[in-house]
DNA sequence: AGAGGTTACGGGCAGCGTAAGGATC
DNA sequence: GATCCTTACGCTGCCCGTAACCTCT
């Protein structure tokens, strides 16, 4: 009869997923269970909160009003847990978006640290390019994200997080003078991040500025793939130093010293989240991420 | 595992009752059920919230911190209900303290009106003198109260509510000149409110000022009793006009016209509640009470 | 001994998952 | 016909109430 926190979590999940069945998956239950919980909530309030058409789920005016209360109640529950509970017992979900580079750096450390501090908290991880992640974040489908450069939305908070120097890398056998110029490098295929990303944009500008028209770029979304391609002799690549240290030490890759004009800016990452986040866990995750990034930097 | 609104309501009830068994009675359940709910809450948080000695229940530091969250969550649930739900479905409890005079005036109207507007809301009524009610209110054991004169606590909000003229009343057979002086009245027993109440204090001052030392006062907490005493010929009494209109019309009582010096101030009632009330229903009850009082005044 | 909180235990019912049913594209 | 929400139904497990127990005054 009365409103119940379970129902509220379900309601929030449905609203955020815009679908009963997706919400059910996310809540680790079945779709009928979600359906019944929403029905119970609606009966308890005596008002319909969600309008279900066959293709979409939308909020009724009452639903929109209730959403605000629901979010505040869920946030309050979590705040209370964080303030009082044994960290072991804190529950909740953090939806985190990350760029692949971070995955290869310290994300495993963060995941481990978080699951140590908050074993009962679930992490919903989305790995994608900065652009895609950014859109999810702006659409409030993520609670926070680690991505390149600040997000210039007014409602978003950005913190500098970490930065990774890029080094030019080539197969050991490649014929390259040192220091190499952009022109030298452009004799080979250049393997880089996908088209719209910040480093690739910077690189194409540099190539244009140097008057190089016929550069052959290979854009890939996968950092691991890029490294593999260089190791296989496909071409040269600017890569985050930490990803290739081991391969260079082992002689599988060669670090190419370049002229200042060919140096790329380090990849600067920020942690970004909505200013009015109602997920009290976000603060903890941010703090933990800053620590992990700092530890990683020192190594 | 997770915190549940049922547990929170139970926690709040236990804290407010300072007892598991009293809370159980108030929640219409059994004492073991309360015990288990509190245990579940504590296990869920991994912290003990309540310290139980054999004679008293007190809050641990964590409990005190949690109390704040619990109150906010309960308030939020109720706000959401008030904002969205069918009024029929709004649940909750309002703890109301009233002076007896109000009971005889329009309290039945208020109760009826409230149970019409919010059939699922429970009213916990305490009828006592203004002084006793005031203490309960200050101790936050009441959500609001209708009592005489403003409560001068800093955290309390007072609204003028209604005022009842007092008329001197006597048994019809009594020998009294008109207009009667205080001295005339004081030849008989004067039946009045209990010692510490505002009208009785005013009356004793008036008697002192008139140099009357040997007045025989009968102080009683019950207005109905007082009326009965006058009807039975025990003495005279200042009574709220509305309570004796019918008896006067029927000839069972006589209204005594008195000189200006013997007139008593009307009984002024205010509605008082804590400024930071977390019970969203209080506002509705206040509004409803003001309406009922106004309607009553017009009759 | 009595008041009040805890533990033990059996039963009822809420809520779940499976499966079938409808509606819309 | 595919997708997605709803309804039906049997079952499990949780929570409740009764009752016995413990502890402190």
Q: What features would you highlight for this structure?
A:
21% strand; 12 strands; 45% helix; homodimer; 299 residues; 12 helices
Mean pLDDT of chain A: 89
User: Largest sheet of chain A, described in full?
Assistant: 5 strands, mixed
Shape of chain A: elongated
**Level of helix content of chain A?**
40-55%
Number of DSSP strand runs of chain A: 12
Kindly report how far apart the N and C termini of chain A lie. Answer: 56 Å
**Order of strands across the widest beta sheet of chain A?**
4-3-5-12-6
Radius of gyration of chain A: 24 Å
Task: Name the chain pair with the biggest interface and residue counts per chain.
Answer: A-B, 29 and 29 residues
Order of helices and strands of chain A: HHHEEHEHHEHEEEHEHEHEHEEH
Fraction in beta strands of chain A: 15-25%
> Which residue ranges of chain A are poorly predicted, with pLDDT under 50 across at least 5 consecutive positions?
none
Helical segment tally of chain A?
12
Regarding quaternary structure, how should these chains be classified? homodimer
Structural class of chain A: alpha/beta
